[in-house]
Write a structure and sequence with these properties.
This protein is of the alpha/beta class and 442 residues long. It has 10 helices and 16 strands. The chain folds into 2 domains: 261 residues, Quinone Oxidoreductase, Chain A, domain 1; 150 residues, Rossmann fold.
């Protein structure tokens, strides 16, 4: 059993970018640092995979107007990650499992991920064939039996650092809402002190952007390593997509649905969920003809409007000649205004994000709204954030697991390999290079 190394790598904010400035490599520093030592009530986690999202660009601004402080210069970034507990001082050896003083290391293949290049765990990223999903290539998706490289193969103010509570209560997803953890008893809340994590457990937490992390046991959200075909799927932004489609826009059978930002981590799932809910016609928006072709060919969209290919409203009227019944808005700005203009009487809007502003580090995507039209046509416009709907997480996980195994849902994503690629991952996400969730295998 390999010992935990003395040092590990982490990604720090080297220089704070100016608002609206395009991110460059020099804004980041990949630094070597001592592996942190867990104290009482804490566990040491070997991170295996992390996600990057657009709101991370906003958190790089010194004046980010969110419910958490911005990233600090010279300090590691943070965000959602999934990893394996390798040391837990509070947990003695139980049933032959390792406790204090005997941490597992990155070469151990007995945990839920297997080892580097191993074939024993379900999260085999080394090109092995023992797990149900082979994620060894950089790009791919997730369907049962699929392999990376196929089209799709089978997301109160604190003073520093990430907020406390369930990792998803501050999910850096499409929206800009952040808050503390859910009240006790909310489904999906952390395990808490009744049964603290032990070595070998798979957990989700907020300390991504580093290879090892110390996590408070009460903040570690324990995961079932076999509930999803690939543990990386826990980092999907499906909870936000499910919340917006089901609770926000209340998508119903025979609806015509418009999903803005359809190629992103949220939108690429929102369209599928709308179809699962019985939508008759699903229309998406994206930023390039190439991504539009993929949405049509691979994700079941019926039509796609392309930013820059003409006025959005004109494209949308052509794609939805009978109007829109439900809108999942992840972008704001011109696209929200166009959707309001094309909405039918009684249309339902879920506003879940502001991607048109976040790519440049902002938080606001202003739009002029005709309030008379809203009232005359009985349109419902609802802002909705995940931290108010934490109970959708287990609900979504059950739906996602079933959909992945039955082939009715896919997990579009791209995976870059190694902590050194994390800055590139964020830069490419903001540049619109990828379809689906952007992950980094650590």
């Amino acid at each position: 059993m390999t010992a935990v190394p003395a040092t590990h790598r982490e990604v720090r904010l080297a220089v704070r970018p100016r608002p609206g400035e395009e991110l460059r490599a020099e804004h980041f520093e990949v630094a070597e640092a001592p592996v942190p030592v867990p104290g009482p009530g804490q566990v040491l986690v070997r991170n295996r995979v992390m996600s990057v999202t657009a709101v991370m660009r906003t958190l790089m601004n010194g004046d980010a107007d969110l419910f958490v402080p911005p990233f600090a210069e010279g300090e590691p970034l943070w965000g959602l990650a999934v990893g394996e507990v390798v040391a837990a001082p509070d947990r003695p050896r139980v049933g032959g499992r390792v406790g204090a003083g005997r941490p597992t290391g990155p070469g151990d293949t007995s945990g839920p991920f297997g080892g580097s290049g191993g074939t024993g765990g379900p999260f085999d990223t080394g090109g092995g064939s023992g797990g149900p999903v082979d994620a060894g290539r950089e790009a791919g998706g997730l369907r049962p039996g699929g392999r990376g490289g196929e089209s799709w193969g089978a997301q109160g103010r604190v003073t520093e650092g990430p907020p406390t509570g369930h990792p998803r209560s501050a999910d850096p997803g499409p929206g800009v809402g952040w808050a503390g953890g859910p009240p006790s008893g909310v489904p999906g809340a952390p395990d808490g002190g009744a049964d603290p994590p032990r070595p070998g457990d798979l957990i989700e937490h907020r300390f991504g952007w580093r290879e090892y992390a110390v996590v408070d046991s009460a903040e570690a959200h324990r995961l079932d390593p076999v509930a999803l075909p690939d543990p990386a799927a826990y980092l999907s932004q499906g909870p936000s997509a499910w919340m917006g489609v089901v609770r926000g826009a209340d998508v119903r059978p025979d609806d015509t649905v418009f999903v803005t930002g359809a190629a992103g981590g949220v939108g690429s799932l929102a369209g599928q969920i709308a179809r699962l809910r019985g939508a008759k016609r699903v229309i998406g928006s994206t930023g390039s003809p190439d991504k539009a072709d993929r949405l049509l060919a691979e994700l079941g969209y019926d039509a796609v409007v392309v930013r820059g290919a003409g006025p959005i409203e004109d494209q949308l009227r052509e794609a939805a000649p009978d109007g829109l019944d439900a809108v999942f808005d992840n972008v704001g700005g011109e696209q929200l205004r166009a959707a309001l203009a094309v909405a039918r009487r009684g249309a339902r809007f879920a506003v879940v994000g502001a991607l048109s502003a976040q790519a440049g580090g902002g938080t606001a995507a202003p739009v002029q709204i005709d309030t008379v039209a809203l009232t005359d046509r009985g349109i419902t416009l609802r802002g909705i954030a995940l931290y108010d709907h934490m109970d959708v997480i287990p609900e979504w996980t059950a739906v996602f697991a079933r959909g992945l195994r039955e082939g009715t849902l896919s997990f579009p994503h791209v995976r870059l390999q190694g902590i050194g690629q994390a800055p590139r991952a964020l830069r490419e996400l903001l540049a619109g290079r990828h379809v689906g969730t952007v992950l980094v295998d650590l």
